[in-house]
Write a structure and sequence with these properties.
The N and C termini lie close together (about 10 Å). By secondary structure, the chain is an alpha+beta fold. It is globular. Strand 2 and strand 3 form a beta hairpin. The longest helix is centred in the middle third of the chain and has 16 residues. Helix 1 packs antiparallel against helix 2 and helix 2 crosses helix 3. The strands form two sheets. The chain has a two-stranded antiparallel sheet with strand order 1-4. Strands 2-3 form a two-stranded antiparallel ribbon.
Amino acid sequence: MKILDNKTTKIAIDKDSLAKYSDLLFFVFNKPLEEGVTLSDMRKYLRVMKSIEDAKTSDTIDFNDEDYSLVASKVELSVWGVISTDIIEFSDYIQSFK
């Protein structure tokens, strides 16, 4: 079991709120997949996305080891549309649980 802090970043979601790690993770898992996805992977992604959604108002995000491995892999391979030290810190934090 991996328990990650749901930290707040300096990245604005809108004029009134800043992104938390759960928001960044949701973005990573909600991006369209160019190569498509198998039904087996879709089930895994939906399970992870439910954990992320459940953590939106929490101080922590809980993943079992299998789901954490998927999260770490997806974060590592993500392509971002902005340059931000917050994204680097987010990625480094996620990878630190390996």
